[in-house]
Design brief:
about 450 residues, alpha+beta, Collagenase (Catalytic Domain), Immunoglobulin-like, 9 helices, binds zinc ion
C-alpha cells in the first residue's frame, strides 16, 4: 500500500508533464491495503522473556525448525514473478529457524497456498496468520498477492504520452481517450500482458516479505499499543472514500490496537516491514511512516527470537494444544458407585512445550439450555455444577482418549455432590480448556458438546 502512495505520486508528476495525450483526472487509483485479519482477542503477556521487538501472535507460531510447504495455485504467474516472490519470501529464513519449502503446484497437501491475482479480481494482499493456515481447506488459498500492484506503470504512461506499442494497443481496441482514467490505464496494462513487463521491485519485495511475516505469525506493527496517535476522523474518511470500508473495518484493520496483542517485551518499531505507511494527515501529531520495503533490525530480531536457530524451543513459545475427533463417547449412571460416569472421546496433541488442560463436564437442564448453579465448591466450574480433571500433557505428543475398546479416562460426578436434582433428567456438557499459566487465563479449546439426557435417581 505504501509503495502505491509513492507510485501514485510518481504518476501524478508524470501526468502533469504530459501534453500529447493528457489523461483526464479520474478517481485516484489506490493499491489495496493489506487486509490480513487480526481479530483474536487475547490477554497481554504478563511475563516477557526476550528483548526483541514487534507484535506477534504467539498462539499461531509454527514449531521452531518447521519445514513449511508452500505452493502457488492455479498455474498463475510467470516463472519470473514466481522466482522473485520465492526469493523475497525466503528472506525470513536468514534470521529465523524456519524453512519455506516451495513445492510444485500439483502437490496435494501444503501449509501455505499463494493465489496470484490482480486488480481485476479484487482479492488484494493478505495472509492467514501462522498455523491458522492449516485450518484452510487444501483447495483454498491461504495468501493473496496482487501482482498487478508489482508492475512499474511509469513506462506505460510514458508510451501513452510519447507513443509506443502500448499506445498502439489502446488505439487498436478503440479506447475512448477523452474519459480515460488511471484505473483504466492500470486495467489496460493488465490486459496488455506485456512479455517485457517492468516490475516495481520495491513493491514486490516489500509486500511479499510483509505477507510472509503474517504467515509466520507477525501482526501489523501499527497495532502496537499507543504506537500511533491517529487522527481518527481523517482516517475513517480516507478509507471510506478509497476502500469503501466502514468504521468497524477501519477500527479492525487500522486503528485497533491492541492491548490485546503480544508485544514480546519489545518497543514500537516504525521501520518494521509489518507497518502500514502512515501519512501526516492521519495522525494528530504529524507523525509519518514511509514505505518500509525491507526487514528492519527489529523484524530480524523478533523472527530470530520466535524461531531461534541456537535453541530447540523459543523463550517466547506458548504451549499449544489441539483437540480433534471429539465425540461424546459414553455417559451412564452407575447405581453401585452412585453417580454419573462420563467418557468423552477425542485426540489431543501438544506442541514442544508442556501443556495442561482441564476436561470439564458441566450439568445442564434437560433441554441443554442452562447450567445448574451449585454451592459445592469442589464440584463446580465458575459456580455451576461440574466435575473436571486436570490433565498434564507431555510435550510433542499425541494421545487418544477413550478411542479404543479399552477406556483410558473417566470423569465421575457423585450424586451426593450434585445440587438437588433427584428424579430429574440432566444433560452433560463437555469442554476442554487449556490452562494458559503465562497469560493467567483458561482458553477454551472445544465447542460445547452435549450428551443425551441422563436421569438422576430419586
Ligand atoms: Zn498486513
Amino acid at each position: 500500500m505504501k509503495k502505491v502512495v509513492l507510485l501514485i505520486m510518481g504518476i501524478f508528476v508524470l501526468l502533469f508533464e504530459m501534453n500529447a495525450q493528457r489523461l483526464p483526472l479520474g478517481s485516484k487509483p489506490t493499491k489495496d491495503p493489506c487486509t490480513t485479519e487480526m481479530g483474536f482477542a487475547m490477554l497481554p503477556v504478563a511475563v516477557d522473556t526476550t528483548i526483541g521487538r514487534s507484535v506477534a501472535n504467539n498462539d499461531v507460531l509454527w514449531e521452531n525448525g518447521d519445514v513449511i510447504l508452500v505452493k502457488f495455485m492455479n498455474n498463475a504467474g510467470s516463472q519470473q514473478v514466481r522466482n522473485m516472490i520465492m526469493q523475497h519470501a525466503k528472506i525470513w529464513e536468514q534470521y529465523g529457524n524456519i524453512t519455506l519449502k516451495f513445492v510444485p503446484d500439483d502437490t496435494e497437501a501444503t501449509n501455505i497456498r499463494i493465489k496470484l491475482g490482480s486488480k481485476l479480481d479484487n482479492h488484494g494482499h493478505n495472509s492467514q496468520l501462522g498455523i491458522k493456515c492449516n485450518n484452510v481447506p487444501q483447495y483454498m488459498q491461504t495468501m493473496n498477492l496482487d501482482t498487478s500492484d508489482f508492475i512499474d506503470y511509469k513506462g506505460y504512461i510514458d508510451q501513452y504520452k510519447n507513443g509506443g506499442p502500448f499506445l498502439q494497443f489502446l488505439r487498436n481496441k478503440g479506447t475512448d481517450f477523452k474519459n480515460y482514467t488511471y484505473n483504466d490505464l492500470f486495467r489496460d496494462v493488465i490486459e496488455y500482458k506485456d512479455p517485457f513487463v517492468k516490475w516495481n521491485y520495491d513493491a514486490l519485495r516489500g509486500t511479499t516479505a510483509h505477507e510472509f511475516g503474517h504467515a509466520l505469525g507477525l501482526l501489523h506493527e501499527q497495532s502496537y499499543p499507543n504506537g500511533i496517535k491517529w487522527n481518527k476522523d481523517t482516517v475513517y474518511k480516507y478509507y471510506a472514500k478509497y476502500q469503501g470500508w466502514n468504521k468497524e473495518k477501519v477500527d479492525f484493520n487500522v486503528l485497533e490496537a491492541s492491548d490485546f496483542f503480544y508485544t514480546n517485551g519489545t518497543t514500537y518499531d516504525p521501520k518494521s516491514i509489518m507497518h502500514y505507511p502512515v501519512q501526516a494527515w492521519q495522525t494528530v501529531d504529524g507523525f509519518t511512516v514511509g514505505s518500509n520495503d525491507d526487514l528492519s533490525d527489529g523484524d530480524k530480531k523478533i523472527i530470530a527470537a520466535l524461531y531461534p536457530k541456537d535453541k530447540k524451543v523459543s523463550d517466547l513459545a506458548v504451549p499449544k494444544i489441539e483437540v480433534n475427533n471429539i465425540n461424546y463417547g459414553d455417559v451412564k449412571t452407575d447405581n453401585v458407585k452412585k453417580g454419573i460416569l462420563i467418557y468423552p472421546s477425542f485426540d489431543i496433541k501438544t506442541s514442544a512445550l508442556l501443556g495442561a488442560v482441564y476436561l470439564v463436564a458441566r450439568l445442564t437442564t434437560e433441554d441443554g439450555l442452562y447450567y445448574i448453579p451449585t454451592t459445592n465448591a469442589n464440584y463446580s466450574w465458575n459456580k455451576m455444577a461440574a466435575t473436571y480433571i486436570k490433565l498434564k500433557l507431555l510435550p510433542s505428543t499425541k494421545t487418544s482418549i477413550n478411542k479404543g475398546t479399552q477406556k483410558n479416562l473417566e470423569l465421575f460426578f457423585p450424586f451426593k455432590e450434585m445440587p438437588d436434582l433427584a428424579g430429574k433428567n440432566v444433560k452433560i456438557e463437555f469442554s476442554v480448556y487449556q490452562d494458559d499459566v503465562v497469560n493467567n487465563r483458561y482458553q477454551k479449546l472445544t465447542f460445547n458438546f452435549l450428551s443425551s439426557p441422563v436421569s438422576v435417581p430419586k
